[in-house]
Amino acid sequence: xxxxxxxxxxxxxYIIKSILENTDEKVIAAARNIDGMIVSDRVIPVKCExxxxxxxxxxxxxxxxxxxxxxxxxxxYNNIDLVxxxxxxxxxxNIISLASFLNKVDNIICLFFSSTDCVYxxxxxxxxxxxxxxxxxxxxxxxxxxxxxxxxxxxxYNVLRLPFMFGPSxxxxxxxxxxxxxxxLRQGKKIEMFYDSLRSSLxxxxxxxxxxxxxxxxxxxxxxxxxxxCGDDCLSKYDLGLMMADKCNASRxxxxxxSSVTDGSVFIERRAFAxxxxxxxxxxxxxxxxxxxxx
Length: 295
Fold this sequence. Notes:
295 residues; alpha/beta; Rossmann fold; 9 helices; 36% helix; 16% strand
């Protein structure tokens, strides 16, 4: 049995899909909004607002009363600007509610928690952060995620630090950045994309498959408590836009490079220019030779 908390988000939807395709197990799919969730006789949808104690008590009872679960926790308040604007709301969701959930759920085989490259802070275009590097976040979101990681590892569970992820939404009710780019390219519209914000990006499908692969191999290999789950390549959003133009058979000239540094109106809170991560540990652990983004 799986339990995915935050199952109706972009990544959560892909993880549900991967579980159904790669295992024979059922999955408790918990989300604040269960409308549009993947429908299957193996999916058990549970409406759960993580800050609502009654919702969490109900979810914990479902998890604790059944067979032991492989649990994947994805809930996060992750808009960097809004975290800075509403720090108490973000603290309640990212820290207090996580701690309460961990204190109520104990019928689990393993737990994988989604963290972020924001914990590292400002990097360099020629350097990839390793899991053992000092954590020096430059925004409050990164600070809060470090605190959340501490709660997870203190309980003996596992943290996966994720990069900027890319891919089509699996829900007809909400579009991803990817879908907007594809729609604009098909209409011949120009799209401005940052050339100077560098990440070790991966697609949602690959990330989801690796989450499932790790849970399925939890007792077969030694899995480090903290790992970077990211791609091999140094990619800007402009690079991703060019890939999308090729995929859509559109002109690359429709992708216009712009700077995330010189346009101060884009973001309120500071972002890292380079947040590249080293993925050697996860590749060695799972016996993977390369991790390339699929557009």
